[in-house]
Amino acid sequence: MKHLKLAIVTLAVFVGATSFVNAQSKIAHIDTQALVEAMPEMKSAQSELDKIQKTYDTEIKAMAKELETKMKQYDQEATSKTEEENQKRFEEVQGMQKNIQAYRQQALQDLQTKERDILKPVLEKARAAIQKVARAQGFQYVMDSTTGSGLILADGKDLMADVKKEMGI
Fold first, then answer.
1. Which CATH number fits domain 2-167: 3.30.910.20, 2.30.29.170, 3.30.1330.30, 3.40.50.720?
2. Residue 12 reports pLDDT greater than 50
3. Percentage of the chain with pLDDT > 70?
4. Torsion angle in degrees (nearest 10) through CA of 141, 33, 165, 115
5. pTM of the shown model
6. Please, what's the b/e burial string for 18-52 (b: 16 or more CB within 10 A of its CB; e: otherwise)?
7. Which terminus of the chain, N or C, has less C-beta within 10 A?
8. Nearest to 145 by CA among 35, 31, 28
9. 104 Cβ partners below 8 Å, 6+ apart?
10. What's the half-sphere exposure (Cβ side, CA atoms, 13 Å) at 104?
11. Where are the domains of the chain?
12. Does residue 16 sit in helix, strand or coil?
């Protein structure tokens, strides 16, 4: 009988403590991707990135056109040239192809670096606004409810409207 009373008291204390802890944790959620996409800074950042990408694309297309022109010329002149000259031309074309590929890879790396540099202040501004609103409303945790982020159920408070108001969006 004493063991039963002890077990019941222990269970009651455990349930009460668990309920107390759960009642103390306030959780909210926000779709950070939607927030960032709604920010005017993101639109200008995306425009800048698009401009940089177009510049790289233009340069790569010009290099490819030059290569194509040279290949056609060399192909037409191949019968009138010596084997040694044709071999040098072949090596030149291969070198040009390698240069285009190397430039393409470098452009991709540069674009990724620029993207990180340009987006970093935008993401930091969004994060700061989320933290400010969450703290002001007493939330201890804010989950990212962006599709694919792993959040399956988001029944808690959605901070999107409050954060947009804070940011003036």
1. 3.30.910.20
2. no
3. 82
4. 110
5. 0.66
6. eeeeeeeeeebbbbbeebbebbebbeebeeeeeeb
7. N
8. 31
9. 60
10. 11
11. 2-167
12. helix
